[in-house]
Each structure stands twice: as structure tokens, then as C-alpha cells.
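TA notes. Do not distribute before section.
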Amino acid sequence: MSSEQFQAAHNSIYNTGTRLLQYLQEIRQGRLSEGDDTKGLQNVEDEINKALHALKEQKYQVAVIAAMKAGKSTFLNAVIGADVLASESEACTVCRTDIRPIDASATPRLLEYRQGQKKPVVIAEGDSSVIRQKFLDHTHKLRATANHDNTTRFELEHPIEAISKLSSLTGFTLVDTPGPNEWESAGFSTVALKQTALEALRTCDAILFVLDYSSFRDNTNSELLQDLIAQRGEFLANNTGKIYFILNKVDRKAEGDRDINDVIADLKQALIGFGIPDPIIYPTSAWQGLLAKLIQQDTASDSHLKNFKRFFSAKYAIENEEGDSVTPAPKKIALRALKDSFIPTIEESVIQTVVQNSGWNLLSDVLASLIKAGKSIEDTLNTRFIGWEMEIETLKQKVEEYRKRAISAKRKVEDVKNSVEQQKQKLMKGFSKGINMFAEGAKTNIQDEIDQIAHSRSAKSQTTKIPNNSQEMETQEFNTDNLGGIIEDFTEGILEFFPGLRGLSKIFRVGVKVGESLLNSLTKSFPEYLNSQDSYVEIEQTKIADPYKIRVKSKKDAETIKLTINQFCAPHIQNLWLETQDRLVRDGTKFREELVQIIQNDIQMISNELSDYLGQSLEIELNINKIQFPKFKFKGIDAVIQHQQDVIIGNKSKKISGTCCQPDYYVDIPIQGNVYDIDLKETARLIQQKIDEQVLKNQHLLEKVIDKQVSKDFRHAEQQINEYMNKFQEQFDSVLRERETRETEKEQILATVETQKVKLNEYLSELAPIQASLNNWKPV
């Protein structure tokens, strides 16, 4: 499905849906004037409004991920059509930035969202040059202050040239994410930067990896791919059609360099080697594309024109009649230069991916809702028509029989509810065990880091040194077998539903790389304490070594060591948590989808039994509408916990600190005595205690979140069948009341209903060919 076909289908569905809504409102107004209860039709009206709203407000997200210096900001600027995002040699992306389109006549704005604040802060407002400079200045400030304001993301409101002609894509969003070397180069919360990039792979409709033509095989880009593949290998394998690799800066190809196609062929083989089957690769010069767009739009500055002439105009030179080389004016060659940059080709391909997948799903869901609404109106009209055609005594008998069947159906719904409750407990158990695994794995990993320090210091001790009997040297070996036993105990009986739990064992056995080890960090900063034996305690003129105690010369050194330990442990623990939550969310999503399908099928069977009775007994031409569920994705655990906390804080004005992903793992490591001894055993105990506290604090909250989500799934199905049952009961009762007072108007009422049915069929007949087209465009 092309973007033009998507736009046409989008317009047709919206126009027909709007007219169907107006038709329904006219029917309801007429019925209300007669004093009839039309609650059932109110529900139908609400569903149409909801579907039309989704059609207008649907969000489409395209994430752009790159290693530093790959030209990500320039590429984004080329798609936007404005030089609005700054690019520097240093890492510029300190957190996620969402670029949302606005009308060309609106004023662009840069908004900043901060933790704990619902309303964003306006950082800049004005043209692209103003926003560019203020954005850059603000980024420098965030780095200098270690994100003192707790910024979580930015939002840039700006026209996006790539979708300017597609009104159906007003919810299109470009997501600028930090690359792996930006995770390490930022002076704060590097785990949050990593989480932003990894989360994009789960939630975005398309992902673009921008690679540098001149160095795509260097360690930086390999790290980008290896890390993301390690985290989201399954996703990448199953979503190759949504992932693009943009080989940027091909304009830097020198005359003696290999052909671009040969470079792409090598890159393709490298990507296949990384585990990405059939990768989609586009070469591009984002800088050329951006300058060409600016020239076309007459928004290029003198500097832009100068750069275009310097770097790109020469290759478009032509020979005049005298045989001299003449370079056309930039305006005359801008269109060709833009096409040669491959930016339009990439835009078209990515937009087609978005509309072919997420766009198609949206149109299909909205269309199904409108058709269902139309069929529900048709059932109402048929019921009313049959109710007036039938003898009144016969009608009363049928209505009473239906009432009994509805009561029986409600009992069956209650049985489904009990079954769902059992399945919900399994889901909660899986998450609970995963979190417990995280706690035990994180504590064991931290203990291992502490033990490595003690082992290293112990190995440097002379054999003549005697351990202090009052403080036995606890040089515990990191026993992966013991941890494996813990994991097996945790996963027993739940692997059927959460197979990812077993995958956590490898992570907890080897840990997650967060820079260098704690031992190396301390050794580099304090070699005099880690490589010598200055920390011995003199007892009866004998030097006694305790490798778990570090004696330092000053309080300043002690405080710095404390900070180093904390700065290592916090991201290490949080990285373990990211790995845990990713697997839990993936397994939980699959489990929940299967549970939703069970609920849907069970409730649908009950609904079908009632429909069969109505059709056989009252001979109404009923449409057996399927129980419908909205599409959903299981949010990250952090997100649902944070939302639940916000609700509690908002309702009770009670502050709840910390979540599993954003805990304060920093501990006040004790310094003993005036000689400044740092006790590593006590340090490990305090950090492990902190982990237990955070897990315990959030375990109950997470259970409440899961309970709320699954219960909501069931309630949605229960609501649909209750509305179905009540709708017919209310319609039957309404017809009976009418017939007691308006029996003489029987022929006129039947004629009115028949006219309404004819009009309704016109709208349904308009939706039918749209549905046929969508079926032809269905993604493979």
C-alpha cells in the first residue's frame, strides 16, 4: 500500500464514518422525541466517535539510532527539511527527542519534559536557527550540571517536510535516540540513555540505523550493532522489513575509493554476520539532501549556499558552446541534487513501511469498528421491525424467554471470569519470580565485584601475614553453580509461561558489561591503596591483613572511593534490571495476548448462542459481531509502576520514592574510626539491603498494575456482551411499551424503519469496497 493509497483510504473511511455518525444521531434524536430508551444506540455512537478519533490521532514513531559522528542530526534535519538539530564532534543527544509535525504556519517550539512534572518547559520558540542554538546551549548545560533538572526527554514541534502532503500522518513522530558511545560519554544516567535506544526497538514502527560510510566497520558501529542485537536479537530477526541501515556521508567517497555498491555489499555481509537476515541498506548524503531541500524552499542561508557550491555544485557542471565548464545556479540543480542524495527514496520507503504495517492495522481496525457499528444499528432496526410485525402476545412470550437466556449467559460469563483469575495469578507469579531472580542475581554480581577486590589484595599479601581471628577473611568464590540452583528454583513450574526466565541465568552468571570492573576503576584511581598493603592493622606488633578493609590516608580519599563504588554499582544494577524487565515484558506480552484470545473466544461463544436464539426464535436477520479488543503492548515495568505511583501521589498526595529502574541505589558506606577504614563486606551488605528494599517496595505495586491490566482486559469483554444483552432487552421492552400506546401507527412506523434500513445500507455499501481494497493491500 503506497502513501497515496493510504491517504485515499484514510479519507474515505473518515468521510463515510462521519456521515454514518450523523445518520445515527438523527435516528437517536427522532427516537428520543418519542420517549424511547436508546442507551444501546448511545454505546454505538460512542464507538464510532472513538474509531474516528483514533483515525485522526494515531501516532506513528520512526526511531533513528546511530553511533556518534555518523551524521544522525544531519540526517534528521534532511528529513525535517530544516537545519534545526545541532551536530558537533561531541555527543549531542543527552536523552530522547521526539520531533512532532506541526502546520507550516505554526511557530516551532522546543519543549523539555522533567521527571515529576506533567507540564513541559518551553526551552525555545521561533525559527530553526533560534531553536538550534538554544537546544545546543541547553544540552551543554545539562551535561555540565549532570542533568540537575532531571530532564527525561525533549519534544520538538516543527513542520516535517517528508510528510507535508500527507494529512493522514499528522501523528508521525521522528524519535532521536542516543547512540552507544553517547551512553558512555554523557556525565549522567547513561543507563537511561541505553534504555531509550533499546525501548525504541520495541515501540517504534520503523527503525533507522545511521552508519558512517568511512567507518561503518569500526569498533563504534560494531558496538552499536552487537549491543542492540544482543538485547533485541529476536525482534530484529522478526522485523527485518521495518529496519533500515542508512550508509551516510557517501559524498566523502574519493576518486580512488571502491565503488559504493561494493562497500554496500561488504556491509550487507557484515550485517548478515551480525545475525540480521536480508538487511535493507540505502546509501545517502544527508548533508547534500538537507542543503538541496533548503535551497528548494528558499530558506537556505548564505552559509548553506556557500557550502552547497563548495561541496556539491561542481559535479553538476555542464559544458557550454565554447567548451567551458559552467556550474548552474544552486536553485536550478537543487531538485536533482536532492534526488541524488537518496533522501527522498529513503523517506518514501520508510513511509510506505509505516503505512503498510501500522497504517494498515489502523485503517483495518477503524473500518471493522465502523462496520460493526453499522451492523449493530442494522440489528436494532431489524429488531424494531420484527417487534412491530409480530403479534403482541407472541412477542411478550419471546421476550420473556430471552430474559431467561440472558440470565444463564451472565452465569457463563462469571465462569469465564473465574478462569481468567487463575491465569492472571500465573502471570503475576512469572513477574514476581523474575523480579526475585533480578534481586538475587544483582546481589550476587555485586558481591562478586567486592570479592574480586579482596581476592586481588589477598593475592598481594605475603604468606607471613596472619589473618585477624576476630575478622575471618571471607574470600568467597563467586559460585555460578549456586546461582544456577537459585535460578532453577525460581523458574520451577513457570517456564511454560515465562521461557525468558531461563535466559536470565546467563545474564546473572556473567553480569552485564558497564565499562570496566569495580576493581579496575578503584585501581586506576587509587593504586596506592589497591596495590599496596598499607591497610594492615597492627595487633601485638604483628601486621594482620583484612583484604575486605581499605585504610586510606584522608577523609577526602575515603569519600572519593565511596563515590566510585556507588557510581559503579548503580548503573551495573540498573543494567541488570533492564535485561530482566525486557525478558519479562516480552514473555508477559505474549502470555497476555494469549489470555486475551481465550477471553475473547469464550465470551464470543456466549454471544453467539444468544444471537442464534434471537435469529431462530424471533427470526431477526442478526449480524454476529465479534467481540473486539483494542491493540495493546505490555508497557515496560518501569512505565506502569511509575504511572501507578503518579496516580497514588495524585490521589493521596503521598510521595513514594524509587522504582525498579530509577532507584536510589547509592548507599552511605560507613567509614570506621579516625584512620578511615572502608569495610567492603559492610559495603556489599548495605548495597544488597538496598536492592531488597527496592524490590520489596515495588513488588506489591507491580502486582497491582498487572491485576489492573488483566482485569481491564476481561472487563472490556464483559462490557461488550453486557451491552449486547442489555441492548436487545431494552429494545424489546421499548417496542412493547410503544405498542401499548401507538398500535394504530403500526404501518407508518414500519415504513419509517424500512426507510432507515435503506439509508443505512448505502453507508455499509460504501465501506464494503474499502474493506476489499484493504484486504488486497494486507501486509504479508
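Switch to the second chain here.
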Amino acid sequence: MKISFLVRDLCHMGGVVSATQNMASALAERHQVEIVSLRRIQDSLHFPLDSRVSRISLTDMRPHSPLYDGDDPLSGEFPILYPYPPTDKTVVVSRLAERRLVEFLGATDADVVISSNPRITTVLARCDREFLKIAQEHSMPSIYGREVRDPLFAEAYPRLDGITVLTPEEKRNLSRLVPDVAHRIYVLPNCVPDPGVALATLDRKVIVSGGLLKKHKNFSALVEAFSEMASAYPDWSLRIYGSGPEGRALRKQINEAGLSDRVLLMGPVSPISEELSKGSVFVLPSLREPFGVVLVEAMASGLATVAMDCDHGPRNILTDDVDGILTPRGDTAALAAVLKRLAGDPRLRERLGSAAVESARRFGPGPSVDRVEGILSAVRTCASRSVAAHCLVTEVGDVQLTLAEGSTDGFGPDATLVCRDLGGESPDVRLPLSEGRAVLPGRGALAEGTWQVLLWDGVSREVPLLCSGSDTKALVTPALPHLTGPALEIVLPYKDQDGSLRLRSRVRDQHAEVVSVTCSPMEVKVLAQVWGLALSGDAVVEAVNRRDSERTLNFRPDRIDREQLEFKVSCASLSSIHHLPTSMDEIWDFRVLPSGPGGAVVPVAKLATDVLQPSRVYSYPRPVLEVKSPVMPSNTARSLRQRLRLVRTTGQPVTALRREIRPYYTQNAQFAIRTVTV
């Protein structure tokens, strides 16, 4: 197949460039591969690239080149689709490059297009061509600036066929942030080829490290740790490869520690493998590391490797005390202790170095190509087929799922259904399939949340189910409350806006279910069933202000019995405490305190129903009251609090207002009342 990689450029010494070229070179053994860069600014590359990989530069910014684009007026204009930070003043990727990218995507004959840059991904996602569209994330999307993160999460990811991340932790994190695309996220570590140099002999008393000299790389901690071992091991030295904004501060730290001859800032080097093999110990002190290519390169060179146990990369690359050593994140003293241990124990260095070489092979070209081909196969299967299911809720609350005939063809005998929490809080729930049917128990299966359902082949392929129909009449009058376990436990299947099957699960040990709401100009009366509650004589209903949770109103129920609770809310009382400007609403959320103030809290809600969104279905009368209120002062006050203080303390004219009382249900189906000046 033909595979195109999209990058900003190949003319800088960065991890994304190295990883992309390594993967492209590996894939060129079996496929037609090209790398398309938005711009070219120099002749040579920093990293090796297989001669079988084609290079395409959409704009050429080399002044000596006959294809020079710098004199095109669009080369100085900011792009329109490609998101830029609002603070940027310099055009790096131009409107010309963006226009040519759109033209390329409209004409390419590639089977797969892989974006290695999140900003390019937002442009790729707009293309409606039939090739597979993949985003390859080399960092952690949660830390991107909002100008790229927001369109990436809301618009781009849902339009892509697949998204790859570097570690299982990042897959879980991104699945939580963008749950609708969780089934399209795959783990793809970076490809690290054989260094092509002789293995380190481990007898040179040199510690090596490398990377961009930035704060989160934490090289200052490495210098400090080395200074703690320096006197005990005077014949050892430290070499740090790379460049970056922290270079000057590191130089000062080294000089102040009196280690100018023993701690050397070597500058950037490419390829780094030959330099790494000069050492015996490699250290990655990063506080944040999406993967850590240089760590794998050091392992492949046979060094004894040490890394701080930050959240992602290192712990997925090495196993502590097997093929390397992990030290606690940010613990400089622990790092110093490990360096002393390695400096004084050549046998330990040899054991770790030997195991590291074997371990690093799983990131080599062969395994990497196998992973990519497996992901593309899964993506193609997911993109080319849809599986529909019909749902039936039984009288006892179970959900029966019946797949369309032939849906499981090609999924093998181990095919099952997987229920996945879109909030990312709960583990997957697997349902066995028998002749295209499965049953989800209405009790004890799903935690509270919203779940999607996927067909899984038992290995790697997942296809989300579409909803062909949902029979939920058993939930019109559900058999609730339950006498054992949670009082409320109900699963409601429904068709989402994109046609996919969703399951809304609600699980409450205690619950107050709204039965009726009656409104008059004087009051709003609410009757609720109480389940799993033991109401004391001190029980109250509490209204909590949405803007200020310290503002609460307590109501004594007018009637309490074993199964029901009734309370009334005075419209005049709610209107009189509305102190916000006339353009702003007050919102009060209602809950029951069964044993009185300071005790347990149970929201008053509408959940025992087949209605997915009570906020859209249940509409109640809205009493309107005439009130007198001070006219708001001008907007010259600096804050809302200052404006309110002015209203209360200055002699302002009084005007007649109309205040509307609006009972309603929130998006979470909790009962609330909004007061609005009309």
C-alpha cells in the first residue's frame, strides 16, 4: 500500500522528525512510503532516511533553490485552517503551505495519510477523500494549547479513522478526554532502529544523557545528583548532549559546583548512537516524557540505563532492576544513590546492559512495521463496516441486544460485546455472544455513567454498534425501587445523535424521584418518592445556589411518610433573594438531607423513566411576580461583588420588575428552579 506521512518540516533536530523518519524507513521495506513536509528550509537532514522513502516539500524556503517560494505574497500570510497561537507574530507555516496541503490532499493517490503534527491533523480531518486518515500523536494532547486542542478534540478526532498514541497510559488519558473516539485509539510506540555501532564496553567511567535542554527534562537534577557522587568517584564524568533554553543555567550550575572539567555540555549531535556508546551509564531524568526514543537508543547500545519514573514513556520501556533502573520522579537523592551504585558495581552494569539490548529489539523496525500493519488492518475493518443492534429492555430491567444477521462474520469464535465507560472511570464490561445475541444484566453490571457498546474480535478489532431500534416500554413504569442492593439501578439504551448505541446507567443507593410538580402564583409544590432513605424528624429539603454553594435555603417537608415526601417552595421567597443584575439568572438545585443539616445528601431528580432528557420533555407553568428593585449602577464597577455592594449601600432609584419562577430539570435530570428577570 502507499503511505504518506505529513510533517511540518524535516529540517530540525527534534524527536518527531527522528521518529517519523525511522518509521517511514522501516515501512519502506514492505510499502510505498513518502514524507510530505509543509516547508523546506535547508538542504540536508539531521537523521538518516531510507533511500526508498520519497520526499515532497510543499513550499521551498531555501533562497538559493530554483523552486524558492519566499517571494510569493502568500508565504508571508498566516494560514486560515492551520491553527496558530494568537500570540504568534511570525509566520512559520504560511497560507501558501496550507493551500498546497489542501491541494495535495485533494489529489493524492495514497491509501493511508498519517499526520505527525496536531495542527496538520486539523486540516487533514477536513478532507472528505476515501483514504484512511490517521493522527499520530507524539506528545500528550492534554497539554496542547487551546487553539489546537479544542478543534482537535471537538472536530478533528471524530472525523479520523484512527489515532495512535505512544503508551497505554496516554490511550487511557485521551479516551477519557475524548470518549467518543476511544475505540479508534491505538498504542504505537516509536520505532528505534539498530544503532549500527558496536555495543558499549561499559568500562569507560562516563555517564551520558541527552535531549532538549528544557525545564521538564530536569537536567539540573542530574547535575546535582552527579555532584553528590563526584567526590566518592573522582574518575567519573558526565556528558549531556543537546541544546535548548536551559543551557546557560546549566552552565552556571556546573561552574558553581566546581565541575567544569567533569560535567560537559556537548551540544547537539546526530546521530547520537556513536556518542552514547562512549558511556557506561545512561540517565533520562525527565519529569515528563511521552516516550523517550533516546532511552531506547541507549538500551540498544548496551548501556546500563536509569530513568525517573514519570507518568508515561520510561515505565513502558524498561523494567526496574531487569533491563534498567527506575527512580522516583523528582527524587534527586535517589538518583544520586543509583549512580553511586552503578559506578561501584561493574557486574550490575553488565547485567542491565545485556538485558537492555534484548529488550530494545521490540522497538526495532520489524516489530514496529507489524504493529503499524495490525493497526491499519483494524482501522480499515472499523471504517469499512457498521454493525447494527436492536435493544429490548425486559420487565426485570435487563437489556437484550440482538445484532443484525451476519454482523459477526469475520470476527471469529471469540467475538464478544464490550461495554465501555465514556467517562473513562470504570473498566470495560464484556458480554458473551451467542448466535448474535447478548444480555446485559440490569443490575450489578454497569457503574453509573454513559456507556458505548462495541463488537470485539477478542484480539484487537473493535467496531462500535449502531442502534437500529430500542424497545424501552418496560421503563415507562419500571419495577423500582429495588428491595436489595441499590434502591435505584436502571439502564436506558438509546440512539445517540450519530446513530451509535449508548447505554445510560444510573445507580443510587438512595434516591428521591420526582412524581409531580404543581405550580401556582404562590408556590411550587413537589411530590417525590423516597427510596432507600430513612427520613428522620429533622429531615429537610435544601436548595443550593448554583453560583455560590454557601448560599442555601432549607424547607421543612409538609408531609413525610415511609415512601413519599412533599415540600413547597414559596415563589415570593425565591424572588426576594434574587440579588443578581437583571441580566443574570439565579439557579437553585434541590436535594434531600434525610437526617437534617450536616448529614447525607440525596439529589431530587427524575431518573426512573424511559425519557432520556427530562429537561426537554417536562415543562411546568412559570409563575410571574411583580417586584421592586434598585436600578443597577453603571458597569464602571470592577466586579460583580462591587456592583452588588453599590446597589445595597447607595441610594439608587427603584423600578418595577417582573420576575419569573421556572421549575425545570437539569441536563443530569436533577430538579432545579431558575429565577429570571423578564
